[in-house]
Design brief:
Layout lengths: L2 H11 L18 E3 L12 E4 L3 E4 L5 E2 L1 H7 L13 H8 L3 H6 L3 E5 L2 E9 L5 E7 L8 E3 L21 E6 L1 H9 L4 E4 L17 E6 L3 H13 L4 E4 L7 H6 L4 H11 L1 E2 H20 L8 H11 L6 H12 L9 E4 L6 H9 L7 E4 L6 H4 L7 E6 L7 H13 L1 E10 L2 E10 L2 E7 L6 H4 L3 E4 L4 H15 L10 H12 L5 E2 L3 H7 L7 H18 L12 E2 L2 H18 L6 H23 L13 H8 L3 H13 L3 E3 L10 E3 L13 H5 L23 E2 L2 E2 L1
Parallel strand pairs: 9-10, 9-11, 11-12, 14-19, 14-20, 15-16, 16-19, 21-22
Antiparallel strand pairs: 1-2, 2-3, 3-4, 5-6, 6-7, 7-8, 12-13, 17-18, 23-24, 25-26
Helix pairs in contact: 9-17, 10-11, 11-12, 19-20, 21-22, 21-23, 22-23
Length: 705
């Protein structure tokens, strides 16, 4: 075949000929017919291309020479136009064809176009995958055979080179082949981002070197290998030599070059440390004066308002502290609850705006085993799930509980392999925090106690403020282009260079003044301490350190956290009731009493049970729509403050008051109580033991009072 014919065949191979029968490819006149690349075409016989006359579309009238067609098809180099045979591949890589044949390479034809088959074998020499090389250049150089799973290239040669004691990890098959040709042990990753952590077990006991190619892709590969083999050493490509194949093509003495590069290689940990130090310096510079700010949370609210946050200041501050707690061994989880369209997701998104992508991973839904199989890093990071229903199954919530409680996932499953069914242990490292939004008043009981539930404001006044803000923004009355770089810099600096350990000198005093009656407080108390620690870490530049280098939390850290969390905490342990639920129950009690008095005043005997309330009645009194009022009613029903006498599903509720609302109490001492420094606090009076022998015994309806 002439050069011109090969060039034409390379162009034709790039055309989409979907639906064209083999007898029309080419036809009797030597013309090839395909879908036109110059317009959205669905008829495969509109476009004609001929080796001498060029191309023409009889639908859009595009026409021209082969050079213009090659440019349209994205062909940038001459090499992309020629079919790739094993002979051409060996010639291009300057490797003996017989040597490549021994490695299993051969010429195959895909849609009548020559390509090189690159077989992948396992340690026993069994073929486990096949990759085809279609050309020497261009973006579409490779294609995997259907059903192939990605493996490292060269597993079957590891045993032969074990006595050498070292191995070089390179990208691609040709670099591996070049090193093998020169008697140097190597293993190849099919691409810069394909390295998998469990491949490190193949290289156990060897001194591992990683060849770093220039550019971002090379850095990514070194980072992935280094993450699984921290003791590896990095070989930097010499000037003008992208890879070992380029050095070989240039005629260099490869064994001597590799020997020199091994002596010049640097430990991955050292390079990583230098990179992190540089990134930390850049992050600190970007943070500016935020690090020295005495009240970062108040400053945060100012910026959040400019990005669109209306109200929800306490919830936003709590979420900001929670996301900052990812640096700790036990991040604090939050469940953001509210009615549909209540602004749950919007509030979370406004907080996330001020964090870099490294701080969180967002999902709207996931399959039941996604947490086990996903390769997205979750260590010291927050998983943000918009809508609880997106967890899909009980198994998904089980994996989530394991990740939150144990700090990692160990999931053993059985997978089908070439050797039959084999067990596989999947491990996902944490610790991981969770932010979950939901319209449900309660979620899975085991998950509910593993985080703080916060409710968005559903009041009519909040709605008025939101509408007013939207109107102002529409008219351009809010500042545009908020600079978030300092906030990202602050959090990135905390990740890279900030302290991770905090000591809280007054923790025992908080414990002594806490209400010990609630068992749930055992878990929530840890979350409170971690929020204090997160606040101290956030302000660590202004905090002292102890002899171990730990940040010493000040009373100001407890004061900030106490003011944010006390209502949520009290509600969670049933020491008090949220303002929304209290308002709803009080309205219901008043309405019920009013209805009761009305019936008596009319001289009508009371039915048994007494007349009931409906959700629309309560909604009208609260000045809310029925769906929002019903959500509040469900919260009151969950707490037994209201009772629903209707037992049939999908029937309107028949409501009446239930348990009385509790008195306003607090499960934690106030910061002012600690500020005196008068030693350990005593528990609240109502929790102390009573000596009944010394008190009068007063009974009312058989109950001691």
């Amino acid at each position: 075949m002439s050069v011109a014919s090969e060039r034409f065949a390379g162009i034709v191979a790039r055309l989409d000929r979907t639906g064209v029968s083999s007898d029309r490819w080419p036809d009797a006149k030597g013309e090839y017919w395909a879908l036109c690349p110059f317009h959205p075409d669905t008829h495969p016989t509109n476009f004609s291309v001929h080796p001498e006359r060029g191309y023409r579309c009889f639908a859009c009238d595009a026409h021209g020479g082969l050079k213009a067609l090659a440019e349209k098809l994205g062909i940038q180099t001459e090499e992309e136009l020629f079919p790739l045979t094993l002979e051409a591949y060996a010639r291009a890589k300057k490797l003996p064809e017989a040597f490549l044949t021994e490695l299993g390479l051969e010429t195959v034809y895909i849609r009548k176009r020559a390509s090189v088959k690159l077989p992948y074998y396992d340690e026993s020499g069994t073929e486990v995958a096949v990759r085809f090389r279609l050309s020497l250049a261009g973006d579409a150089r490779f294609r995997w055979r259907t059903g192939s799973k990605v493996h490292p290239y060269g597993l079957w040669l590891l045993r032969k080179t074990a006595e050498r004691g070292y191995i070089i990890v390179v990208e691609g098959e040709s670099d591996s082949q070049t090193l093998w040709h020169h008697g140097i042990p190597a293993i190849g990753a099919p691409g810069a981002t394909t390295w998998k952590a469990d491949w490190s077990e193949f290289l156990a006991g060897r001194e591992v070197y990683v060849w770093q190619e220039p550019g971002e892709a090379g850095e990514r590969m070194v980072g992935m290998v280094g993450a699984s083999i921290p003791e590896c050493q990095v070989i930097t490509a010499p000037a003008g030599r992208k890879d070992i194949s380029a050095a070989h093509l240039a005629g260099e003495d490869i064994p001597a070059l590799v020997k020199r590069l091994r002596t010049e290689a640097r430990p991955f940990k050292q390079i990583q440390g230098e990179q992190l130090a540089g990134e930390a310096a850049e992050a600190r510079k970007a943070a500016g004066d935020l690090l020295e700010c005495p009240d970062i949370l108040d400053r945060f609210i100012g910026v959040a308002r400019r990005t669109g946050l209306v109200g929800e200041e306490i919830n936003a501050k709590l979420l900001y502290l929670g996301l900052t707690s990812r640096m700790l061994d036990r991040p604090v989880n939050f469940y953001v609850k509210g009615s549909s369209s209540g602004g749950k997701s919007f509030a979370v998104e406004r907080v996330l705006d001020l964090f870099p992508p490294s701080a969180f991973y967002c999902l709207t839904s996931m399959s039941e085993r996604a947490l086990a199989y996903s390769e997205e890093p979750l260590s010291h990071r927050f998983l943000v799930v918009f809508e609880y229903g997106g967890l899909n199954s009980d198994f998904a919530t089980y994996l989530l509980r394991s990740l939150l409680s144990e700090g990692h996932i160990r999931y053993e499953t059985v997978e089908k392999t070439d050797e039959g069914l084999r067990p596989r242990l999947i491990e996902r490292d944490g610790p991981t925090g969770l932010i979950l939004t939901t319209t449900a008043t309660r979620i899975h009981a085991e998950n509910e106690t593993r985080g703080f539930s916060i409710t968005v404001d559903d009041s009519a006044e909040q709605t008025r403020q939101v509408l007013a803000d939207l109107a102002d923004r529409r008219n351009g009355q809010h500042p545009q282009g908020v600079d978030l770089a300092p906030w990202h810099g602050l959090q990135r600096w905390l990740e890279l260079a900030g302290a991770r350990e905090v000591t809280i000198p007054y923790a025992r005093e908080i414990a002594a003044g806490a209400d010990p009656r609630s068992v749930r407080l055992r878990r929530d108390f840890t979350a409170v301490l971690n929020l204090i620690a997160a606040h101290a870490l956030l302000h660590q530049i202004g905090r002292k350190r102890d002899a171990q280098g730990r940040v010493i939390a000040e009373l100001a850290d407890y004061r900030a956290v106490h003011d944010l969390v006390i209502d949520t905490l009290n509600e969670g342990v049933r020491a008090t009731v949220s303002p929304q639920v209290r308002e709803t129950v009080e309205v219901a009690v008043r309405l019920y009493a009013r209805l009761h008095d009305c019936v008596i005043a009319e001289g009508v005997s009371l039915p048994h049970p007494p007349p009931y309330l409906t959700v629309p009645m309560i909604a009208r009194e609260l000045d809310l729509e029925s769906s929002t009022a019903w959500r509040r009613v469900k919260q009151a029903l969950d707490a037994d403050f209201l009772v629903n006498d209707e037992v049939k599903k999908r029937r309107p509720a028949k409501l009446h008051p239930g348990e009385p609302l509790p008195a306003e109490t607090s499960v934690l001492p106030s910061p002012d109580q600690l500020e005196g420094g008068g030693g350990p606090l005593t528990p609240p009076a109502h929790t102390q033991s009573r000596n009944l022998k010394d008190e009068p015994c007063n009974l009312k309806d058989g109950v001691l009072v």
